[in-house]
């Protein structure tokens, strides 16, 4: 099986996780399994202090969930340690792990890719090359990982609704202005900036880092009970005829391939919506 996440350790206490799932870093069931095992390790390893997630593909951080994933296999996957379905379990656990998680976003992070970035403790984005968005409403679906709960806390109700209901793309500089990411960094400086920040954190005491993070979590993270209803609504919404029609039309036009559809998805979900 092709391993999608490569782990390196630049220095003591600092891990680097690189996504590589050609052609566009779709999140599929294997991605979720690998992330789940990685979170297991992060929860148990007493030496790791900080982990940085980035992509080998400069155009796609994590594109979105693979809409062609095997539904029977998905349904058969056991719930995670939180008692939630595997994807929700990964998101909840990475947020609460006693390790600092950083998403270094270069390329597109939409749908579930955006949900993963939002679940990380911090997000730093390429000013020129990062694109974030929740496009699901544009195809008639409800975002299943409940990014609504995280976005509202980060940027306020109005802007969260703009992101989710508008289903459009947010480039790095606008994502920074809205609070979608911590900051946007010039692309040529992104890797150096994130690496220096991660090394700084890795030089500190692990117990103090974990304890301080836990207190921030208590006043900032959505309750886990908010997530399963969103996933249930996602499954109901993707089964609607109109949603299936829109997704099929996008697939026929190049969705999930290295195509203009994926490079400019925010524009295309609006262009293919039925006119009234």
Task: Name a few traits of the molecule.
alpha/beta; 276 residues; 13 helices; globular; eight-stranded mixed beta sheet; 18% strand; 8 strands; 2-enoyl-CoA Hydratase, Chain A, domain 1
SSE diagram, text form:
Blueprint lengths: L4 E7 L2 E6 L9 H16 L5 E6 L4 E3 L8 H6 L9 H11 L3 E11 L1 H8 L2 E12 L13 H9 L1 H10 L3 E2 H7 L4 E3 L1 H16 L3 H15 L6 H12 L2 H13 L6 H4 L1 H7 L5
Parallel strand pairs: 2-3, 3-5, 4-5, 5-6, 6-8
Antiparallel strand pairs: 1-2, 6-7
Description:
This protein has helices at 29-44, 71-76, 86-96, 112-119, 147-155, 157-166, 172-178, 187-202, 206-220, 227-238, 241-253, 260-263, 265-271, and strands spanning 5-11, 14-19, 50-55, 60-62, 100-110, 122-133, 170-171, 183-185. The chain is an alpha/beta fold. Strands 1, 2, 3, 4, 5, 6, 7 and 8 form an 8-stranded mixed beta sheet that branches. The N and C termini lie far apart (46 Å).
- The fold-level CATH name is 2-enoyl-CoA Hydratase, Chain A, domain 1
Supply the CATH architecture: Alpha-Beta Complex
Stretches where pLDDT falls below 50 for ≥5 residues?
Answer: none
Total number of β-strand segments?
A: 8
Instruction: Specify the number of helices.
Output: 13
Strand content: 15-25%
Judged by helices, strands and strand pairing, the structural class is alpha/beta
Sheet bearing the most strands, described? 8 strands, mixed
Please, what is the oligomeric state?
Answer: single chain
Instruction: Identify the CATH class.
Output: Alpha Beta
Give the overall shape, derived from the CA principal axes: globular
Give helix and strand order, one letter per element, not per position. EEHEEHHEHEHHEHEHHHHHH
Taking all Cα atoms into account, the compactness measure Rg is 18 Å
Q: Could you report the average pLDDT, rounded to the nearest whole number?
A: 97
């Amino acid at each position: 099986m092709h391993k999608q996440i490569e782990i390196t350790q630049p220095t003591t206490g600092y891990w680097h996780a690189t996504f590589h799932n050609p052609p566009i870093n779709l999140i599929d069931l294997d991605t979720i399994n690998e992330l789940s095992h990685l979170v297991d390790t992060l929860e148990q390893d007493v030496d790791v202090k900080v982990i940085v997630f980035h992509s080998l593909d400069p155009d796609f951080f994590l594109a979105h969930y693979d809409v062609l994933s095997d539904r029977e296999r998905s349904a058969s996957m056991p719930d995670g340690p939180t008692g939630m379905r595997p994807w929700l379990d990964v998101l909840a656990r990475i947020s609460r792990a006693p390790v600092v998680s950083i998403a270094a976003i270069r390329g597109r992070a939409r749908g579930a890719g955006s949900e993963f970035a939002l679940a990380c403790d911090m997000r730093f984005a390429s000013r020129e090359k990062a694109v974030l968005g929740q496009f699901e409403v544009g195809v008639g679906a409800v975002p299943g990982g409940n990014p609504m709960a995280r976005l509202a806390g980060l940027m306020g109700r109005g802007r969260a609704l703009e992101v989710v209901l508008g289903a459009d793309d947010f480039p790095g500089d606008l994502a920074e202005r809205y609070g979608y990411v911590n900051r946007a960094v010039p692309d040529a400086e992104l890797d150096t900036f994130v690496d220096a920040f991660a090394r700084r954190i890795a030089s500190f005491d692990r117990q103090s880092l974990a304890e301080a993070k836990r207190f921030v979590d208590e006043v900032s993270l959505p309750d886990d009970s908010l997530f399963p209803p969103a996933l249930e609504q996602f499954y109901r919404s993707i089964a609607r005829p109109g949603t299936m029609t829109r997704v099929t039309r996008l697939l026929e036009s190049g969705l999930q391939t290295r195509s203009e559809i994926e490079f400019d998805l925010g524009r295309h979900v609006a262009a293919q919506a039925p006119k009234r």
